[in-house]
Write a structure and sequence with these properties.
By secondary structure, the protein is mainly β. The chain is 11% helix and 55% strand.
Length: 133
Amino acid sequence: MSRPKIKISLSDEKLAYSPGDVLVGQYVIDNLGDHKVVAVESSVIWMTEGKGEEDIGVQFFDRQKGPFDVRQLQQPRKFSTVLPRSPFSYDGMMIRVRWAVRVRVFFEVESQRTEELYFRLGNVSSILGDLSG
């Protein structure tokens, strides 16, 4: 049986953004075979990883319920959101803050497929440099 594919792309093809930038992108769901899609969620999220409890925040969320025609899902579905002032992306020794566009496809037979495209918000290293200089 074929494995469904989710392709996420950002309009400007860059992966680093500043607070206040508008993140614009699209996704396509393909190779569905016999899978029947009952819902699709797209979101822009941030998440922490590392020591302590992991957190997640949602900047943008959209859920569309089916049923869907296969051709509908093969057409680009657009999203956009204004990026917030924080939290900035950060890769530290104890904690990591990551931003992602996440698309989840829910199938009729109690399963789902998720794809994420990571990007960076802000530049913590330049801020830390300003503080130490």
